Every structure is written in structure tokens, then in C-alpha cells.
Amino acid sequence: INITKGEQYQSWFLDINPKGEVPVLKDGMKIIPDSARIIDYLEDNFSNGEYQRLIPLDKGSDVRKKVIHFRQLIDQIPANVVTLGSFYHPKFVGKPKLPFITPVRKLLASGEEKNITNLKSLAEMNPNHRDVLLEKAEVSEKKHQLMVSEKSFENLLYQVDKVLHEVEKELSSKTQMDESWLCCEQFTVADISLTILLNRLYLLGLENRFWSDGKKPGIERYFARVRQRDSFKRTIPSQMFHLKTFIEMQSGFVIGTVIFTALAVIIGSFILLRKK
């Protein structure tokens, strides 16, 4: 669907996924929403044994429980709230990188505010999906309040730091840190979640707050190592992609482009990050 045109809120898409959220996968008559569930579905139904499973079945129950624990722990962080909140409170941020430079940050913040009004208007235009759209508008308003409140945003950053502290503790427990990933020597779905989070924080300019300059040496080494993976380089959008973003920004498409970037990284991780 075309996010830049708001197709996720059109009736035909709401009939498929009443929550009006992307990504969503349709396989025959089955509808699978949410990136994490999509990754699990693809692995459970289309894995042909060519690659190791993202949640290992041959490493014992302790490793499997650890993978699930860290995946859930990391995925509970509302990355979109952290992202937009950093636009409203630049004093907490260091030096943002592409694509989150000043023009994009301003446009995304403005678009987030307009989205609430648009959802309410769409609710009146689509009586069959009115309740869903109004609920999304209400959720968006609550998120907006969280973003613009400095105290709430600072508390959110504290929660992120608590999660990263637990990650650091796990990484520091490894006897061979250069040969092991977060939960074991195999790159798992927990590593995908962690890689996506760390890269988002890095692009926002928050690495100095959370791990660089020796604050969390285990995470610092981990992130440097994961960025050298060929799969990481192939998954993360290129400079040319960001140049395209700037061009499209002039046409008002940057919001959808940046959102699409995030989704591409999440789903692309299933295909690429699992590879060496």
C-alpha cells in the first residue's frame, strides 16, 4: 500500500486489517499483522532449512527462553515515540544522522500533529470504520502528549536505558564476546530487534547518551561488530536512498518515505540479517 497517500486508512485496507496498521501480510485467506508476527510466520511456514532458525531449536530451552525474553524486552520500547519525541526535545540528542536531520525532523513532527486531525476527519467519512479510526486518533493524541512532555520523554529515555543496561549485562557475561551474539553464538531474532533499536538510536544521535565513550562497552563493541556484517549493510538504506528522501520531501512525501524505511528495515531483516 502507499503510506504517503494514507491508504492504510482507506476502507479496503481496514477491511483487511481493522487496526489500519502496517506492515500486514496476506497469504491466501490468512492475514498476519505486525512485523514480529510476520517474521515468525515466514520462518514457520517458508523456512526450508537453508538457514538457521531465528529462535534456535537446537540450543536448549534456556537459550530459547533467553531469546524470547530479550526480543520481548526490546520490542516493548516504542521506537516511534522515542523518534518523534527526540524532535521536540533536541537537548537530549547529540548529532542526528541521515535521514533525521533538521528539515526531516520538522516535517515529521508537523505530520504527526496533522495525523490526529486527519484520522478524525476520516472517521466521519468512513462510518463503517469510525470507531477504529477514532480509537487510533485517541491513541495518537496520548502518544503526542507523551512526546511533547519533557518529563515524560525523559522518563521514556530512562526506560530505554534500563533495557540497554540489561543487554549490557548479558553481553558482558560472555567469555568470548567477539564470537557470540546477544544470546548465543548464533544470530537470533533477539539480535535483529537489538540491531534495529541500536541503529535507530544511533541515527537519532542518542548513542552518546546510552553507550558510546565507554558508557556501555559491550553494546559499543556489539554495534560496531554488527555494522560490519554484509547483511546489515545491505539492509540499511543507502545514502542514495536518503538523497531520494530529500527530493521527495519537496513534494511532501518524506513522511511516508521515512516510515517505509523503518518498515523495510524490519521486514528486510528477516531475509538479510539472518545471513552472515
Automatic annotation (TrEMBL):
SUPFAM superfamilies: GST C-terminal domain-like (SSF47616), Thioredoxin-like (SSF52833)
Transmembrane segment boundaries: 253-273
Span of domain GST C-terminal: 111-253
Pfam families in the record: GST_C, GST_N_3
InterPro entries: Glutathione-S-Trfase_C-like (IPR010987), Glutathione-S-Trfase_C_sf (IPR036282), Glutathione_S-Trfase_N (IPR004045), GST_C (IPR004046), Thioredoxin-like_sf (IPR036249)
GO biological process: mitochondrial fission; mitochondrial fusion; protein targeting to mitochondrion
Keywords recorded for this protein, A-Z: Membrane, Transmembrane, Transmembrane helix
GO CC, alphabetical: mitochondrial outer membrane
Superkingdom classification of source: Eukaryota
Family: Belongs to the GST superfamily.
Protein name per its UniProtKB record: GST N-terminal domain-containing protein
